[in-house]
Every structure is written in C-alpha cells, then in structure tokens.
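User: Just a sanity check before I run the rest of the batch. Below are the structure tokens for the first item. I only need the designed sequence back.
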C-alpha cells in the first residue's frame, strides 16, 4: 500500500464538464503519535457527492457543539458558512464536485433543502450508491476512482430528472466573471421576470444569485491568497473583483466570522497546509492507493 500523502484536484472528461467541476482526492495517513488538526472548511460555489473510503469524518456546524458522523457517501448541498471537519487517521476522501444546480437536475431535489447540510446518499440512490462505494473502496489506483465515478455519472445523466435551463447558464456567468453582473439582465437572459428568476434560481442552486456571486468571488480570493501568499490583501481584493480591502473584509467576516489575516492563520493549521499543499492545483491522477 502506498501511504504517501495525496491532495489532488482533477478535471473531468470533456463530455462531463457541463455537470462536473472537478474531482477531489485526499489521502492522508497520520501516525499514531501525531495529533490530527481540524479543517475549517470555507464555502465554495458547488455541491457534491462525497465518499469517505477509509476512516470516517465528523463535522461541526456553527452554533452546534456536537460532532456529527458522516455516512460513507453523502449528497452535500451549497454551503454558505464555514464549518469544522475532523478527519480520521487513515483518511481517503473522494469528492465529485458538481457544477451549481446539478443535484436539482439529476435528482429533482429542490436545492434549498440541502443548503448548509447533507444527506446520506443511500436515501436517494439506494443500492446503486452502495455498489459504487464498495467499488471505490476496493479500487487499486487513483485513476480507477475517476473511471468508476465517470461511469456512474454518465448513468445519472441519462436518467436525469430535469433539463438544463437558462438559469444554469446564468450561474456559470456568475462563477466566471469577476465584474458585477446585473440580476435583472440575468433574469431577462433566462427568459424570466426578476421575481421568477429569484425563485427558480434558489430552487436549482439552493441560494440566491447574489449569494452565489459573493461566494464565488470570496472563493477566488481565498484560493488566490493561498496559492500566492506573497500577494498583499489589497492586490488579492482588486484581482478578485472587490472594490477595496474593506469590501473583502466584509465577505470574510460574513463567510468565516474572521478577518482575512486571522482566518489565514487558522487555515494555515489545516491538515493539507501542514503537509505543504495548496488549493487550486490540478493534477493528473497517478499512483496506487
């Protein structure tokens, strides 16, 4: 068994990129005499199916003191808050990081029911997700994880509950444009009134369009600073579409409860940071598990 630490983000096949943003693979093995650090997990503009293939993970959400054990496979909705993740000593995590709105398209579940929470994937996918979880647990290499996942996703797409909508294109514009976009313009491009647009957007994405735009901008700033720690905070703010540093501070306080500098210190103690990994890096999957 290869016990080398892995922290990989991987692109999907071209034919799946309308549905999948990326795959995440994390494989950490902590010695018995090492204290496992807590991961403060920030909001990201996505929803996911997540698999815990070795030791389980526990989470604590803001305002809740008790740890909650996550099942082996979960559907996780759009997050708007930072929560704490407690990983196991032999932690093998595989994440299918979907485009916003995908869980609604695939399963017809109103996305606002999954905002800031998760459900056991077996409640929706039953026998199929059990079989996939076992296949992933028995995989002998990281590329095999991707291969099994893409076969599974292709089957889901063929029987998806909802068609693509102009709102999905609107969400992509919010993700990839740094400058502000008029919500009325997005509504007109989606062939909806502003009120219809707001209601349907929340049904598909779990949050409002303005919330998604803020989370996408915050995530860009978080990743940029993590990848280029030499950049000063004002430069990070301007490059990510903020008016100034104070504007960035407001979003950091909204999504993490802390100032940018203070949260950077907290994030520096996360398991992947202590092992020398940064966000925003894409890799080719290689190696045995």
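Assistant: Here's the designed sequence for the first item:
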């Amino acid at each position: 068994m290869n016990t080398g630490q892995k922290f990989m983000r991987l692109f999907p096949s071209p034919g799946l990129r309308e549905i999948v943003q990326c795959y995440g693979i994390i494989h950490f093995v902590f010695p018995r005499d090492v204290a496992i650090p807590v991961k403060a997990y920030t909001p990201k503009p996505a929803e996911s199916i997540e698999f815990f293939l070795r030791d389980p993970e526990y989470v604590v959400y803001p305002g809740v003191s008790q740890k909650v054990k996550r099942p082996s496979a979960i559907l996780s909705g759009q997050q708007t808050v930072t929560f704490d993740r407690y990983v196991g000593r032999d932690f093998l995590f595989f994440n299918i990081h979907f485009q916003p709105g995908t869980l609604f398209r695939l399963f017809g579940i109103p996305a606002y029911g999954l905002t800031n929470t998760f459900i056991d994937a077996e409640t929706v996918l039953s026998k199929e997700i059990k079989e996939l979880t076992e296949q992933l647990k028995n995989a002998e290499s990281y590329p095999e994880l991707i291969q099994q996942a893409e076969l599974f996703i292709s089957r889901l797409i063929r029987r998806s509950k909802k068609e693509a909508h102009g709102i999905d294109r609107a969400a992509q514009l919010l993700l990839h444009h740094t400058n502000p976009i008029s919500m009325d313009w997005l509504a007109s491009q989606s062939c909806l009134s502003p009120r219809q647009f707001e209601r349907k957007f929340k049904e598909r994405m779990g949050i409002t369009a303005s919330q998604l735009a803020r989370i996408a901008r915050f995530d860009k700033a978080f990743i940029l600073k993590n990848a280029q720690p030499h950049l000063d905070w004002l430069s990070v703010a301007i490059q990510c579409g903020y008016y100034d540093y104070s504007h960035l501070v407001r979003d950091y306080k909204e999504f993490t409860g802390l100032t940018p500098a203070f949260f950077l210190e907290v994030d520096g103690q996360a398991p992947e940071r202590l092992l020398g990994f940064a966000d925003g890096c894409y890799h080719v999957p290689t190696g045995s598990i």
